Amino acid sequence: MKKTIYFLICTAFLACGEAKKEPTQEKTAPVNNFEEFSAEFVEEYWKINPISASYQGYHKYDSLLPIPNETTKKKKLEFASLWLERLKEFDFEPLEEQDKIDYQIIENQLSSYDFYMNKFKSGEWNPGAYNLGGAFFQVINFRDEDLNKRLENLSKKLDHIPAYYTAAKANLKTLTKVHTQLAISQLEGSKSVFQGTLIDSLEASSMDDSFKENFKEKVEAAATAIDGFVSQLKEIQPTLADNAKSFRIGKELFEEKFSAEIQSAYTAEEIFQFAVSEKEELHDQLYRLSGDLWEKYYGDQEKPGGRFDQIQMVFDAVAKTHVHRDSFITAIRKQIPQLENFVRENDLLTLDPEKPLVVRETPEYMRGFAGASISAPGPYDKNAETYYNVTPLDHYTEEEAESYLREYNHYTLQILNIHEAIPGHYTQLVYSNQSPSLIKSIFGNGSMIEGWAVYSELMMLENGFGDNLELGFMYYKWNLRTVCNTILDYGIHVLDFTEEDAMQLLMKEAFQEKSEAEGKWKRARLSQVQLCSYFNGYYEIRALRSELQELMGEDFDLKQFHEDFLSYGSAPVKFIRTLMLKKLDSSKKAV
Do the bridges between strand 372-375 and strand 386-390 make them parallel or antiparallel, or are there none, so unpaired? Predict the structure, then answer.
């Protein structure tokens, strides 16, 4: 489940460029107040990262389009160096606790520039870094601004698309085959934003005929530039069978990216080892529950000799209960109110009824990576709609659709909705936007975000949601997926897992359907480290809750824990832990 936050982190480094009129970065006088420093830093950050600003709901720089060239790369590195220097002017220890977290988040963000630009350099081998569909959609979708003004900004942005793709072509070195395949598909899909969404909005506007004609010409020029870039990729694609760059990044780069992106209390190797151990515990739970369910589905039939065979047979039986392929999105829409009612009735968390959640078909420019995801508004656009993106199954054959639906059966679909919607991603991101710290919201930690969604699955079942063996059985299988995500991610990029190794892990040891396993094999080759974020965050949150329960005893309140935890925004769990423990220590001293 890919989140918009992850895109923002990548955009700051991959699309490292600027339009000609982009504001210049100047060194200013030192700021003694850390809040003033943070506000100034954020403003300067948006000037140099205008696409990320649009995604976060800050639309002051919507007319700018980053152009990925060497001049702007140098400028961004200078920006990072300057602001790191200014950050270090502050004495860390006297800062307020919340400010200490912001300090460390800013430091990590700026320190990562050198790694992403000079060492990781994915813009040289991943052409998908140059997909502009989402950047333009975020501007036209900003409903709080007059449509004519949005179109004026987009007109200026469109001016730079030909130069953007000229620079993108020059950046490409040795490509990976799997990234090139996805890029071609998504870039072709992105044209629907320009030739569809933008033109439809133009026709609905009150702009004069001259502007409309000029705008349409710019859209066609943009489509031509995209086609030219795609054509180059298609020319290169046949040669990638023998000359492709490996999609594996190796142990050194994996550990560095893990440190920068996950910001865990552990190393990538430690989290991998924890996941291997957890996998064995989950197998024990699944074997126990498969025994409890055996008679219901197989009567007096003799059980198979192997544990995995028994578990798989019960999965096969339970998974037959699923919706029709044409009802998949409808079923998801119907389940959302049920989750809301359960959370309220069990007093697990305060939900904001004013924040809309819209279940929609995944836009074409976002397809091909994950079947379901959340696109949440940024902290500047808190009242905008949150989208629950669900990819329809119309591209599957009957056999493929049946495999997919067995994977997302009646029980698993409920867990998916907990994870993506309530009280998972949707709920956590609403809380994040209410955090008084803009830094924590803007630079949201993907592992905390994913970890909360995984933790919420466990928490809902612990409090009686569903209340049947099948749901518990499927939950353990789902949780096994989280664990195996980490094993697969580390295994592919560090341990050189082959496709055969991946299929053994996913289909035999994680009991996944073929379609799901093949999709995860593809996804793990397209990304690095992100698949570790689920288990890492879940592991750290679960450990923190246990730690506080032990320290507080009967005074521990689950709802209070949830709301306190979420109140710190999307900060790394290790930083939230520090604040919550200090808060507890202070309350004990006050008594």
Answer: antiparallel
Cis previous bond, 356, omega within 30 = no
CA 223 to chain centre: 28
297's tokens = 């589905």
Task: Please list the residues that pair with 389 across neighbouring strands.
Answer: 360, 373
**Do the Cβ atoms of 48 and 79 come closer than 8 Å?**
yes
Residue with tokens 């350099």: 121
CA atoms within 13 Å, Cβ hemisphere of 152: 11
- Residue 16 scores a pLDDT above 50: no
- State both tokens at 475: 């939950």
- Provide the sign of the torsion angle of the four alpha carbons 204, 207, 212, 214, taken in this order: negative
Q: Is 388 helix (H, G, I), strand (E, B) or coil?
A: strand
φ/ψ of 389, rounded to 5, equals -85, 125
Are 400 and 515 spatial neighbours (Cβ–Cβ below 8 Å)? yes
Distance CA 522, CA 97 (A): 41
* 8 A C-beta contact, residue 314 and residue 297: yes
Report cis status (omega within 30 of 0) of the bond before 238. Answer: no
Average pLDDT of the residues of the chain: 91
- Calculate Rg over the CA atoms of the chain: 24
Which sign does the torsion angle of CA 260, 264, 270, 271 carry? negative
pLDDT single digits (tens) 511-532? 988 888 998 999 999 999 999 9
Whether 385 and 358 have beta carbons less than 8 Å apart is answered as yes
| 581 vs 559: CA distance, rounded Å | 17
**Beta partners for 358?**
387
Length of the chain (residues): 591
Sign of the CA dihedral with 196 first, then 368, 446, and 102 last = negative
Q: pTM value?
A: 0.86
Residue 335 pLDDT: 93
pLDDT over 60 at 29, yes or no: no
pLDDT value, residue 66: 86
CA–CA distance, 385 with 367 (Å, rounded to integer) = 20
Residue 363: helix, strand or coil by DSSP? coil
Comparison of pLDDT for 4 and 456, the residue scoring more: 456
Closest CA to 105 of 576, 582, 536: 576
* Nearest to 411, CA basis, from 337, 331, 480: 331
Confidence of residue 368 (pLDDT cuts 50, 70, 90): low
Give the other-Cβ count within 10 Å of 501's Cβ: 15
Residues 121-146: pLDDT tens digits?
999 999 999 999 999 999 999 888 99
User: Where along the chain do its domains lie?
Assistant: 4-244, 260-538
**Alpha carbon distances (Å) from 558 to 172, 350, 562, 582:** 51, 12, 6, 18
Residue 11, pLDDT > 60, answer: no
- Which strand (E) or helix (H) includes residue 361? strand 357-361
In this predicted structure, the answer to whether residue 8 has a pLDDT above a threshold of 50 is no
Please state, in angstroms and as integers, the Cα–Cα distance from residue 46 to each residue in 9, 13, 50, 163, 557, following that order: 13, 13, 5, 21, 39
Amino acid letter for position 96: E
Taking only the tens place, the pLDDT of each residue in 376-412 is 776 777 777 889 999 888 888 999 899 889 989 999 9
Q: What is the pLDDT of residue 304?
A: 94
